[in-house]
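User: Please predict structures.

Assistant: First:
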Amino acid sequence: MNLGVAEIDAGHRHLFHLLDAVAAAVEARMLEAAQISAGEFLEAALQHLASEESLFDRVAEFHDSSRHLNTHNEARRTFMRLHTAICDNADLSEARTILDGLIPDMIIRLHQEDTALASALKS
């Protein structure tokens, strides 16, 4: 998911690394490792989304910031649901269900929005 904007690309690589750790721990049914990984992922994901949003004003005339923000807000809710399932409810089955929807669906929509943002930033 290389978009050609170093700051965004580095953030995405880090998030995928953290999300892979969450998924591996959930798959292995290692609750404590999943809880640690979920906490690290949530913190990094929220920081990354805020960092991207700080770029929106720079490209307001070339980028649909409101649609992108809506996608971010949906992602935040999903990331919080994942964190709650693992850290508050110790429910790895629910976490697996959330991950199964997150990875193909949410990631594709985030990538589409980030591609538009990257294109606007490079203009």
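Second:
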Amino acid sequence: MRKILFILAITIFSVFVFFAFSESRNGFLNRNISSGATEVYFGTETVSGRAYLWTDKKHGELYSDPQMTIQNGFTSDVDSLRFTGKKSKGFYEVAVSVKVSEGLLAPTLTESLREYEKKYYEQCSTCHAAAALNRFNKSRWENILKSMQQHSGISDEDLSAIRRYVLLSITS
């Protein structure tokens, strides 16, 4: 009987540890994560396996806050989102479930951006010294990055990653 209780206790403990560490993880995404009609972008913070984002319910953009500081995701099905009940400035907070496999979650934003920082310096220092990120504001960076893509031939995918890295770095 004791052996059965011991095995049962170990099984329950193992299931608890599995869910505690696989579903309820906190940190910042290292990669874009897709789940159904919704994609959450790298650098987004997750709390207990959820990203808390803001939407206007009209468009698919998901933002970090109601001021639309930075876009953290997109959905093609706004009606499928889980609304938290919080509302501000015409925006509604939503909780997006994010299932993250091992290695795709970093404990800090800086660590989640490390790969993209490397890409920035590799791409943006081939012809000139890479600019200090705090040298320009958000709108100026947007113009610089568009211009540099034309001159350097950076792919759309790389430009998108570099753009997000720059914007996250100057707004955090």
